[in-house]
Design brief:
Mean pLDDT: 92
Largest sheet: 6 strands, mixed
Number of domains: 1
Strand content: 25-35%
Structural class: alpha/beta
Bound molecules: inosinic acid, magnesium ion
Number of helices: 3
Length: 180
């Protein structure tokens, strides 16, 4: 039994719904990269929020996967984007010639993904560079950017669970819920 704190949580997607959707995304990713004749994939997971999504997604990938992590955020402990990118850990291997898939929990203002795509594009000549996000909060977009693979399009709610936090809480929950 999970003990939760005072904030009200309303389940938006159950564990089963998330699981089903991740499987569908992986199927599409497998088929696309096979069509594009990729021989392997470098998955760049954006910590901390994408850790659970990444772990489930890569277990369904049918190509050799090299897994990398970056720690980057535009949020801090607030429930809205600070407008500034904080990227304390951005150590990446050589991505020249690689098929690169950035895996993110949620695209909100779009700053994190836009920063990461530009950063990788400026440093390397990858064979391809795509984005998979579990959640897409289009209503909050401030920077024009879109993901190639989207789990769920969501309304402008603050969501927690399945890797996503509110001030570092709730990341361990197996479902996605609206918080507050
Ligand atoms: P962006 O740079 O504004 O697109 O924000 C992306 C980051 O903000 C995500 O990787 C999340 O860590 C965080 N974030 C955005 N919306 C939410 C939310 O509803 N719940 C939890 N974290 C969020
Ligand atoms: Mg994140």
């Amino acid at each position: 039994m999970v003990k939760l704190k005072k904030e009200k949580l309303k389940i938006l997607f159950t564990k089963q719904q998330v699981h089903n959707r991740v499987k569908i995304l992986a199927k599409k990713i497998n088929s696309d990269y096979k069509k594009e004749k990729a021989d392997s994939l470098v998955v760049i997971s954006v910590l901390k929020g994408a850790f659970m999504f990444t772990a489930d997604l890569i277990r369904e990938i049918e190509l050799p996967v090299q897994l990398e992590f970056v720690k980057i955020s535009s949020y801090g402990s607030q429930k809205y984007s600070s407008g500034k990118i904080d990227a304390p850990i951005l150590l990446l291997p050589n991505l020249n010639g690689k098929d690169v898939l950035i895996v993110e929990d949620i695209v909100d203002s779009g700053r994190t993904i836009s920063f990461l795509k530009e950063y990788i594009g400026a440093q390397f000549k990858s064979r391809s560079l795509k984005v998979a996000c579990l959640l897409n909060k289009e209503a909050r977009r401030e920077v024009e950017v879109s993901a190639d693979y989207v789990g769920f399009d969501v309304e402008d709610h603050f969501l927690i669970g399945y890797g996503l936090d509110s001030a570092e809480e709730y990341r361990h929950l197996p479902y996605l819920a609206i918080c507050g």
